[in-house]
Structures are given as structure tokens and as C-alpha cells.
Amino acid sequence: MNEALKEINDTSHILKNEPTVDWLNVSQLMLKSRALDEIEEKLLVPEKLVFNQFSARGHDFAQILLGSLLTHPHDAATGYYRSRPFVMSLGISLDEVVAAPMAKEGGYSDGRDIGVVCNYPNVERNGAMLFPMCGGVGAQYSPISGWAQSILYHRDQLNDRRYSGAIAVSMGGDSSMSTSGFWAALNISTTNNLPHLFYIEDNGYGISVPQEVQTPGGDQVANLSAYKNLKIIDGDGTDPIRTPVLIKEAVDYVRSGQGACLLRLKVPRLCGHTFQDTQTYKTPDFIESEQARDPLPKLKNHLISMKLISASDWETLETDSYQNVLDAVEKAKKRNEPDVDKLTKFVYSEEGHVQLRGGLAASHHQFPSKSYQPSPEGARLNMLTAIRKTLDYELETNPKVVVFGEDVGPKGGVHGATLGLNSKFGDHRVFDTSLSEEGIIGRSVGMALSGLMPVPEIQFRKYAEPAAEQLTDTGIMRWRTNNQFAAPMVVRIPGGFARRGDPWHSMCDEVEWAHKVGWQLAMPSNAEDAVGLLRFALRDNNPTIFFEHRSLLDGAWSRRPYPGDEYVIPFGKAKTILTGTALTVVCWGAMVERCEKAAISLAMSIEVIDLRTIQPWDKEAVLNSVEKTGRCLIVHEDNKTAGFGAEIAATLSDELFFSLDAPIKRLTMPDIPNPHNISLLERAVPNEQSIAQAMQTLIEV
After folding, report:
1. Residue 570 included in any domain
2. Cα–Cα distance between 380 and 559 in angstroms, integer?
3. Are residues 415 and 326 part of one domain?
4. How far is CA 126 from CA 92, 120, 442, 677, in A?
5. 196 and 259 part of one domain
6. Cα Rg of the chain, angstroms
7. CA torsion through residues 317, 322, 325, 330, sign
8. Quick one: 291 and 433 in the same domain?
9. DSSP string of 608-658, one letter each residue
């Protein structure tokens, strides 16, 4: 390296009122970022080697300055599709940054995700970890609030002083402040005084939509001026003198433990939204004014004027950076294509392949002993009490378990499943949240990535809809990062009809979770199974939906003795409730009781199978039973069209067609929401009489 270039760093202290900045590193990263943008746009996109190109020109300078300050081993950040310079500043290798947009083998997704939607596990912990980015705008905010909360939890509840001074950073454009994710995170982090830095890059546009359409007066930050527990720092993101001061002020404020801070820097977007965007929505004069604000010439002129570098040395740095990127491009071209035979690997956790970051498994957490055999003790408990008792034991024996949701704290949950747990374990372990399902699940992601076991509650099944994006992103995290990240959690969701039904509190719709890639789904029918399945989920390395059917929580039939503190039921293992040779009935949840009673009333040698888990489901048990009986009836509460029964029926048709003595039948709810009138509900939901009639008809075919 030319001696003159090294002097950039040696003499940076002469700049008055400016933080110490590694100007050589900042310059190199900026020039490499610009070179990569140019090479992609002019060479790799036309050659169809890159298909999704998002330039960060104009945003790059401030991003790199921010990234250079995230040096704490427990710092973490979330970015978005225009955050590549920031990611480079964290220490990710140039080779990976160049190869990923070409969808080549290796890297942070092994060709599974868009190249700019990246991640950085930083297993060496020599600075910040970058959460897996999401394709959805605004989805980056609430997960990092969860990390911010976990910093305090690790420090104060787990007494790990290594977390002292760590911060959480979320990056986003100005228009992302309109999303529910932003507002959920803002409420979480300000209400709890969390060490969260909201970094907003304000270029004035959301693709083509100006800020005036996003918020009254066109200035989101001005409209937040009265927000409590939020320090706002506002300024120019292109000024080589002032910008470093603003960024350091924001980082120092959050590190000091004073709470959340919103840093808004105005920057020009010196490009279209993507390489295809011609920016016809901007006037030529406006585009010219943006180009005049380019931070790269400002940086160059500043360094030369301060005699930190000569013009010729800058040209050398520019040439070398461009060549470094060209060399990385050529190396990337020689990489192999991803192995197509590994396409389905890492949808779920795989034995011997623990993810790099996230969950209890990554930290080698040791659990108490377990047993696959129940040890019944005491009187019969209802399912609600069994769930509470299981949560109590796991909270007691695992300090990394945290339970939360709306009304989960002192009230004990609207159903009573957490009654008394807040007073026993305190507000940091069993607590209430704001009314935002997006925020509840998003915060769970950050907590899981920090190595905790979050147990969020969604109060009713229907209320999970606002959290759909976070749930989807959580499920696919392991696969799309090629097992670098995973966020195991247990989401407790009550649902289904109770004494009455209605369209808002009584939905099951379990098939949605079966179709959510990466999620497991448990639907216990009784208290004993609820204990075993819940305990298994709380110790497993995959995200799980634990469905608590409302009609079973205090139902007499579903009561069982507590099976012991060691009892677990592995997922994917069905239970045969009744044995028989004339007909196989497959059911789960609230339909198990009704199917058992109907079969007993008929006394026609009917085999009843309780699947217990829908994802995974015990295909082998069902196939073996139908092979024996030759007939199958599938009963479920969910709607008929595309319900999970259709998957079972299709599997039987594919694999046992010539063993069937009669058509496969399904008995379900019609394709309607749950009705509220009791007579309508009884007609809609399969009951003992309608099930018995369907059983008898199928046997007598």
C-alpha cells in the first residue's frame, strides 16, 4: 500500500470536532461498492448473470460510517435491499458479496435468496451480526427490537455482563416508516427504553412515491418530535465533516443506555429503485440536484483539501478498488452452481447440522432428562392447567424461556393458561406486550436469534393474520440462509369453537400452518398430549405453532392426569385411540373426542387415529391402518376445500389406491366461517351423529 494512503489514517486526528474515522477503510469500501454497482449494471446484468440489482449510490457513505462503529461482540443489525455497503463495512468478504447476486454456490444463501437480501452470522463475534434480511419492506424493524430486549435480558436476567454496551440497529428508508413493522418496533423499543438505534435513510422516495404521500407534511421524523423516550438526531448524510459526528452521537447515546434513538440522515438516491427504473417521475433538474449531493466527490475533495491524500493517490485507490472487484467477479464466475440435490436440505433442523446463530441448540443448551413414557400423577387435570404446569416447569428449569403476549402477564391470559406465572417469575420472563401481533412475533425472532426460547401467545387464531409476514419469514429463515440462521420459538395460539362460535375467535384454519414452510404444527386433543407435545416443542430446534383448541381447554373428555415433568412426545407420532379392521378414521384436535364416541356407539370395529401433529404428520401410521381396513374417513373442523384432509386423501390415493375397498371420504365444516348461532354452529361442525352416519355409510359401501 502506498505510504501516502496510510497517512489518511495517521493524520485524521487533526480534523477538529470530528470523531476518529478510518478514512482509508471508508474510502476503499465506498469505491468498491461503487465499482460493484457499475460492473453489475454495465456487465453482469446485460450478461444475465445478475437479475436483481439495487444500487446504494448516495446511501453508501453514511452506511459505511455507521457500520464501522458497530464493534461490540453483541451488536446486531437489520438491513434491507439497499444496505450492501453497510454489510461490507461489517466485515463480510468481498468474494461473498460479489458471488451472491450471481446465485453461485456457497456464500450466505447458496443461491437460495436474492444476492442483496443477505446475512452475516459473524461467528467470530468481532463486531455486529447482521440478521437475515427480508424481502418485505418494514419487516426488519420488530425483530431487532427483540434483539435489543434480549441484550438487557442477557445482561440483567442471565447476569452476562458481556452484553453491557451492546446495541441493536435497524436500517430502513424513509417510506418504510409507514409500515406496521416500523410502528410496532417503535412502540416496543420506546416503551421499554431499549438500546435500539433506528437509522433512517431519507432519499425522499419510496420507489416513485414521494414522502408527501406517505405522511402529513412529507416529514415522518418531524411528526415524531413529540414521541416519548425517543431521541431524534437529524441531518445530512453526505457531509464528510458533519455526518460522522451525527452518527457517532447517535451510537454513543444508545450505547450509554439512555434508550432508543432515531437517526435520520438525508441522502440522495443516485439511481433508480433498481437498474430497470428510469426515474421518469423525477424532473431533470431534480436528478441534477441529487447528483450534486453525491457524497463520493465530497469525500474525495475533503480528504485532498485536508492533505490526507493526493489526487494521484486517490486515483490509485480508485483503480485498485475497481480491479479488486473485477478480480472477485472473475472468481465468482468460476464458482460452481448450487447442488440441486441439496435443494430440500435445511427446511427443518437436521441431525448433526446445527445452525450457526439462533436458538438453544446453537449455544449447546443442556436440558433436563426426558421420557417418552408418561408417569401419571394426581387427579385428572384439564388441558388449561396441564399447559400452565408445563410452562411453569420449563420456566423454572430453563432461564432462557420467556413467555409473553397480550394479557399474558398479571391477568394470566384471557384463557388463563399463564395464570400466576407473572407473579412467580417476574415481569422480565412473563410479560404483557402492546397490541400488535406483528410486533409480538417480530420481537420473538430477535429473541430467538439471541439464543432465548420465546413463547409468544397470539390470543386467538384469527389474530395471527397481522403477523403473517413475520411468521412466513421465520419459517423460511433456515432454508434461505442455508442453515446459517434459525429462530426456534413456540407460538401458542388458541382457536376453534367453544360454547359458541363466531368468525373472529373460532377459526382453526390449521392448513395454513401446514403450508408455511419450516413451521411445525401441534394440535393436541387432551391434557396428557398437550404436556408431551408442548415440552417437546420448547426443547426442539424448529419453530412450532402450538394450537390450543378452545373447546378442549376445560373439556371433561380431554382431562388427564399430569404425565410428569419428563414426559415428551416426539412430533410426527400419531396415537391410535381405538383399533379396528372395518374402517380407519383420521382426526385431530376437537374432532378426536367426537370420532371416538361415534365409533364406540356403532361398535363396527372402527380404528380411530389421532394425528396429534399436522406438520409433520404420521403418514406411516395412517398408511398401515388403511392398508389393513381398506377404508378411510378423514374428519376435521377446518373448511373442506384444500383442508389438510385433502393432503391425506391425496397421499392415500397415490400410495394405496389398489388397497382401497371404497372411496376416501372427508367430513369437515363447509367452506364458511364459524357461525355464532348455536344451531348454525352445530350444523356446521361435524358432530357425533354426523360422524357416526358417515362412518356407517362408508363401511356399508
Report:
1. no
2. 6
3. no
4. 11, 12, 26, 61
5. yes
6. 28
7. negative
8. no
9. EEE--EEES--HHHHHHHHHHHS-EEEEEEEESTT-HHHHHHHHHHHHHGG
Same domain, 512 and 630: no
| Coil/strand/helix, residue 305 | helix
Helices (H) and strands (E) in the chain, counts: 25, 22
CATH code (residue 643)? 3.40.50.920
DSSP class per residue in 515-581: HSTT-EEE--SSHHHHHHHHHHHHTSSS-EEEEEETTTTT-STT-EEE--TTB---TT--EEEE--S
C-beta separation of 358 from 487 below 8 A: yes
Boundary-marking domain end, from 538, 562, 586: 562
pLDDT of amino acid 17? 55
In a domain, 352, yes or no: no
Domain shared by 537 and 608, yes or no:
no
Reduced to 3 states, what is the DSSP secondary structure of residue 378?
strand
Separation of alpha carbons 287 and 307, rounded Å? 31
Assigned C-alpha cell, 486: 434459525
Q: Which residue has the cell 373460532?
A: 506
Return the bridge partners of 196, or none: 168
562, three cell numbers: 399430569
Q: How far apart are CA 181 and CA 469, in angstroms?
A: 10
- Count of domains forming the chain: 3
Residue 168 · residue 443 · CB < 8 Å: no
User: Quick one: which of 185, 203, 160 has its CA closest to 78?
Assistant: 185
Domain boundary among 312, 341, 370: 341
Residue ranges of the chain with per-residue pLDDT less than 70 = 1-18
Gap between the Cα atoms of 194 and 200, Å rounded: 18
- Are 387 and 417 contacting, i.e. CB atoms less than 8 angstroms apart? yes
C-alpha cell at 327: 478480480
CA-based torsion, 40, 42, 43, 46: positive or negative: positive
What is the per-residue pLDDT for 499? 84
456 falls within a domain: yes
- The x, y and z cell numbers of residue 329, run together, are 467477479
Residue 378 neighbours by CB under 8 Å, 6+ apart: 561, 562
Residue 548: all three cell numbers together = 390450543
Where in the sequence is the domain holding 381, given as residue range(s)? 359-562
Looking at the structure, do residues 519 and 597 belong to the same domain, yes or no? Answer: no
β pairing state of 209-210 and 205-206: antiparallel
| CA 420/CA 621 separation, integer angstroms | 39
Looking at the DSSP assignment, which residues form a beta bridge with residue 120?
A: 130
Q: Give pLDDT, residue 204.
A: 81
Q: Tell me: do 289 and 377 sit in the same domain.
A: no
Q: What is the secondary structure of 458-496 as a DSSP string?
A: -SSGGGGGGGHHHHHHHHHHHHHTTTSB----EEEEEES
Q: At what angle do helices 688-699 and 591-602 cross, to 10 degrees?
A: 50
Residue 375's identity, in one-letter code, is S
Phi/psi class of residue 391: alpha, beta or left (left: φ > 0; alpha: ψ in -120 to 50)? alpha
CATH classification at residue 206: 3.40.50.970
**Buried b / exposed e across 501-533, counting CB within 10 Å, b at 16+?**
bbeebbbbbbbbbbebebbbbbbbbbbbbbbbb
Cell 387415529 sits at which residue?
Answer: 609
Amino acid 14: pLDDT: 38
- Close Cβ partners of 656 (under 8 Å, ≥ 6 residues apart): 623, 626, 627
Q: Does a structural domain hold residue 427?
A: yes
* CA angle (233 as vertex; 213, 300 as ends), nearest 5: 95
Same domain (yes/no): 424, 539: yes
| Range list of β-strands (E), 271-334 | none
Q: Which amino acids are annotated catalytic?
A: 505
